[in-house]
Design goal:
Layout: E1 11-18, E2 32-39, E3 52-56, H1 76-85, E4 93-96, E5 110-111, E6 115-116, H2 117-132, E7 142-147, H3 149-160, E8 167-171, H4 177-180, H5 185-196, H6 200-209, H7 216-231, H8 251-258, H9 262-265, H10 269-276, E9 280-286, H11 293-306, E10 314-319, H12 330-341
Parallel strand pairs: 3-4, 3-7, 7-8, 8-9, 9-10
Antiparallel strand pairs: 1-2, 2-4, 5-6
Helix pairs in contact: 1-12, 5-7
Length: 342
């Protein structure tokens, strides 16, 4: 496999989008965001309209990372192009969106702690794409996909806005919060105590001073704070952690987290109805996922069955693998979605 970029059968179009909703966001993050749109082979030679599939990135992800090259592995955009180059898969327009924040991510939610990233996607980016490109502009021909935090977005966004997205594919998405998140709380409490006297202010001061020299431990602490900013910020933007200095749950804050757990959400009638209305639902995860997101995937699959998603519109799979290195599965889900939406 060549270590440099491959020739493409389709093409990518990248533009900058000036977001009204992200302007003046609480973190001062850019309101001008890149949007990367893949146009399949034949797009420029026809007047055909296409389904649209949106791709959400995992935590710390930003748009430029999609083209990162690792040894003996093609980046996802090239795998995607190869999928459509074969001519065997019904073509689609694929939209890569950016919801990065200085905390590493937004969980694609509206929050006073980070900004209106859910509304940015649903009320700004989707209409803009429909106006700029020849999409089939309705929810039954629009899907959202992603892994990890992006997989969380793929689950929760259609639950919140079934009028916008009618299909989803989630790869090891954040779900079943008591299993995937809660075990980390005492670990992070101990790290913050031992390294920063229990102070996130001291952590952020240290983190800023060590630009380019961050550690895995830094990223874990940053991620936990970012989740809290997304799930449990006060109206004034104050970020509330769901646990105390001993790692014990703070029930009233933890309930706010659970209100955005996809598995718990589907227990409510409006979200159950939204999930049941999906034209296609793909769920997968590695059996050895370090964050137990295979268990969350299983729980979300059961919820989909309980709300009546028919088997022919539902794909569920646990494969041999961990949380990382599963990018090869992205095109499998896209192919399946294209056949369901076509």
């Amino acid at each position: 496999m060549l270590p440099w970029s491959a020739d493409l059968a389709g093409r990518f179009d990248q533009q900058m989008f000036d977001s009204t909703l992200l302007r003046g966001n609480p973190l001062g993050d850019p309101h001008e965001r890149p949007v990367l749109v893949y146009l399949p082979p034949g797009y420029d030679e026809s007047d055909r309209r296409y389904p649209a599939i949106y791709v959400a990135q995992g935590y710390t992800g930003h748009l430029a990372m999609w083209f990162n090259r690792t040894p003996f592995r093609q980046p996802y955009p090239e795998l995607l192009d190869a999928l459509f180059a074969s001519g065997d898969v019904p073509p689609a327009i694929v939209v890569f969106v950016d919801a990065w924040t200085r905390f590493g991510g937004s969980q694609y939610l509206d929050s006073p702690g980070t900004g209106q990233y859910h509304s940015y996607l649903c009320d700004e980016i989707v209409p803009w794409v429909d106006a700029q490109y020849r999409t089939i502009a309705d929810r039954d021909h629009r899907a959202i996909t992603g892994k990890s935090s992006g997989g969380y977005a793929a689950m929760v966004t259609p639950l919140l806005r079934p009028d916008v997205f009618g299909a989803l594919a989630t790869h090891a998405g954040d779900a079943l919060f008591g299993v995937c998140y809660q075990p980390e709380f005492p670990v992070r409490a101990r790290e913050l105590r031992d390294l920063y006297d229990g102070s996130y202010e001291k952590f952020f001061a240290s983190f800023k001073s060590r630009a380019g020299q961050t550690t895995g431990q830094d990223l874990h602490l940053l991620e936990m704070y970012g989740y809290s900013a997304a799930y449990s910020s006060e109206p004034d933007g104050t970020v509330l952690l769901p646990y105390d200095e001993l790692g014990r749950l703070i029930p009233e804050v933890w309930e706010r987290w659970l209100s955005r757990d996809p598995v718990a959400m589907v227990e409510q009638p409006q979200y159950a109805e939204a999930l049941g209305s999906m034209r296609a639902v793909w769920i997968d995860a590695g059996r050895q996922d370090e964050y137990f997101l295979d268990l969350g995937a299983t729980a979300f699959h059961r919820a989909a069955l309980e709300v009546g998603v028919p088997e022919e519109r539902l794909h569920f799979e646990l494969f041999e693998g961990k949380h990382g290195g599963i990018e090869y599965r992205y095109p499998l889900a896209v192919e399946w979605l294209c056949r369901q939406l076509g």
